[in-house]
Amino acid sequence: MTSSASLTSRNFPGNFPVNSFFSAVVVSPFGAVGIRSDADVVQELVYLPPSFPAQAPGSTVAETAAYQIERFLADPDFRFDLPLASVGTVFQRKVWAVISAIPRGDILTYGEVARIIQSAPRAVGQACGANWFPLAIPCHRVTAAGGLGGFSHQDDATGFHLGVKRWLLAHEGVTDV
């Protein structure tokens, strides 16, 4: 399997051949979401810039993921129920479990998540950035103590990824970050 770090939206050249990598691409108000899957599980969800066109699902699992992403984009109360690949370290999965329990409309800080799992805020931030399944594991619901914080290992205030985080939080009714 190819490493997420080497082939995520952070590293795509503008002419990357979409069909060769994603099982589906769902267009969204903030850009697009790429879905990588195999026959049984979703391997990865990737935030993509608006230049990526929609791509019809190429498998049943991708079709299910695309449908659930579209449902969430229409209704922030929708809850994902996808077969996700088993990825990440034990620590990352611990962080992701806490994040998955944050209700829509709520946020926790990196420090609050760290206290729950008896860790450090920076380590929690790293685990959030390593999330293979954004939306399904809503890492956008974790913020810095003094504001928005980073997102997908990005912290450029005017950059694409923080724009996605702002859109997702507003979509879920969080306006005070």
UniProtKB/TrEMBL annotation:
It comes from the Bacteria. It holds the Pfam family DNA_binding_1. Keywords: DNA damage. Residues 91-174 form the Methylated-DNA-[protein]-cysteine S-methyltransferase DNA binding domain. The keyword DNA damage applies. The keyword Oxidoreductase does not apply. PANTHER family: METHYLATED-DNA--PROTEIN-CYSTEINE METHYLTRANSFERASE. This is Methylated-DNA--[protein]-cysteine S-methyltransferase. It comes from Actimicrobium antarcticum.
